[in-house]
Specification:
single chain, mainly alpha, globular, 210 residues, two-stranded antiparallel ribbon
Length: 210
């Protein structure tokens, strides 16, 4: 499982020359994830500039494909900021500290975290997050993006079936970026060891009591 989470994290990051160089090794790693075959073909049949252009158009220019989990739930509400604070504390609880410019709910960073914790804890976190991950995957699939394959794998790995999400509030990243980034730390890896901890985080709104 750890290797699978690591591979999926790499595949969802902005394409760099190292990704193309590592394709043969990644090809071996995805044998247990046959859903990824179209994505691997996509990487292997496009040059770096095209991959980077498509990545920006897919994830940065289309809010419905955002790789920030809480954007699909809270939009610009204050609940989003608190959710990210709680998620950062969850990382610290397991001895990890962010060391990238990304927000804590960035999907590749979250997947890297799942690769660092034990399988039971990773399954618990994936169970909470799969509803949002599946939502992103469905949006990508509807637009014919090969990146949808990553989210299909995550759905299959989840111990529970994904539930439908309602459409989020209006998109607004400014307040979150002022709070969480950019960081003075480097960009690799996305997480680094630390000490301390606190409480768990949920990735979808709780239902109102009936």
């Amino acid at each position: 499982m750890k290797k699978q989470y690591q591979t999926l994290s790499v595949l969802l990051q902005y394409p760099e020359p190292q990704l193309l160089e590592a394709l043969p090794e990644l090809g071996d790693a995805v044998l247990a994830m046959p859903e990824l075959h179209p994505l691997m073909v996509y990487f292997g049949s496009n040059d770096l500039i095209k991959l980077q252009e498509n990545y920006v158009m897919t994830f940065d220019r289309n809010p419905s494909h955002s790789l920030h989990l809480f954007e699909h739930i809270h939009g610009e509400s204050r609940d989003r900021g608190q959710a990210m604070v709680d998620l950062m504390e969850e990382y610290k609880k397991y001895g990890m500290e962010m060391c990238s410019e990304e927000l804590p709910d960035y999907v590749p960073l979250f997947l890297e975290f799942l690769a660092q914790v034990d399988q039971r804890e990773a399954s618990r976190m994936l169970t909470d997050a799969v509803h949002v991950l599946a939502h992103i995957g469905r949006k990508l699939a509807a637009n014919g993006s090969p990146y949808a394959a990553v989210f299909q794998v995550l759905e299959r790995m989840s111990p529970v079936a994904a539930e439908e999400l309602s459409e989020p509030p209006v998109r607004d990243m400014d307040e979150a970026l002022e709070t969480f980034g950019p960081s003075a730390d480097g960009v690799e890896p996305l997480l680094k060891p630390t000490n301390s901890g606190v409480q768990p985080i949920n990735f979808y709104p709780k239902r109102a009591a009936q």
